[in-house]
Specification:
By secondary structure, the chain is mostly helical. The chain has a single domain (14-75), classed as Helix Hairpins (Orthogonal Bundle). It has helices at 3-11, 16-32, 37-75. GO terms for molecular function: exodeoxyribonuclease VII activity.
């Protein structure tokens, strides 16, 4: 299994808050500097994956809210 596949499957189990907190840490580390180019690229890639996890959670929450808001209209 490829490294990205392993990371993606592990990321699926991350909750929104956990992914967000790790993303914040990645951004802080990138902003602080002092890392090699290779380390910076690895952090950037991890940040991109974490952002995708957060986006999926937020899209799921939006869909649930939209569905809940549509229910009363359907009942009328």
């Amino acid at each position: 299994m490829a490294k990205t596949d392993e990371a993606a499957s592990g990321d699926a189990a991350l909750g929104y808050e956990q992914a967000r907190d790790e993303l914040i840490d990645v951004v802080r580390r990138l902003e602080a500097g002092g890392t090699t180019l290779e380390e910076s690229l690895a952090l950037w890639e991890r940040g991109e994956e974490l952002a995708k996890v957060c986006h999926r959670w937020l899209e799921g929450a939006r869909a649930r809210l939209d569905a809940a808001l549509a229910e009363p209209a359907e009942q009328e």
